[in-house]
Amino acid sequence: MTYDPKKLCQSTKSALVVMDMQNDFVADKGAFSLAGFDVKPYQKLEPIIYEMIVSARQNHIPIIFVAMSHNEQNDGDGAWKQRRIENGHPNSCREETWGSHLYGRLKPDKDDAFFFKWRYSAFVNEQFDTYLQGHKIETLIFAGINTNTCVESTMREAHMRIIMFY
Questions:
Q1: Starting from the edge strand earliest in sequence, which strands make up the sheet with 63-68, in order?
Q2: Contact status, residue 105 vs residue 50, Cβ threshold 8 Å
Q3: Mind listing the UniProt keywords for this protein, alphabetically (predicted)?
């Protein structure tokens, strides 16, 4: 099968997933920038992802926003906490803070879906999977950051559930 994204989006029940484009990860005054991480490459993605959102809306492709959310109950111990400490990751995306809000123009409309997650994969939130099944989504188109962790973890789990992704 030749890869043709336009044909693919028209021939299957697709959804655009915008992952982790939050102030703490992307903004100049976000937790990662303040901790010394270079967020400029992430900021360059905002206009591209915004155009993807506009195109998806024009073509009636569902849009799913997924955002990290940390609080005292889901911070975790053991390997999760240790990895964050060893990598110098700041305490980010705290529930109901400016840092947890979506960055720039990347905001959901009333018809878009929005899910929080507290680990890498969006599937930790059972409502994400329920939404996909309820809307008979067959293909996920991913946009966002942390492709080596959060996007990849969600893609891998989608594959295990027989959902295509790009």
A1: 113-117, 63-68, 14-19, 139-144, 164-165
A2: yes
A3: Hydrolase
Q: Which residues of 36-74 are buried (b: 16+ CB within 10 A; e: fewer)?
A: ebebeebbebeeebbebbeebeeeebbbbbbbbbbeeee
- For residue 70, the cross-strand partners are 94
Condensed to tens digits (0 to 9), the pLDDT of residues 112-122 reads: 999 999 888 99
pTM comes to: 0.87
CATH 3.30.565.10 is right for the domain spanning 5-165: no
Q: Which residues contact 9 (CB under 8 A, 6 or more apart)?
A: 59, 61, 139, 141
* Domain boundaries along the sequence of the chain: 5-165
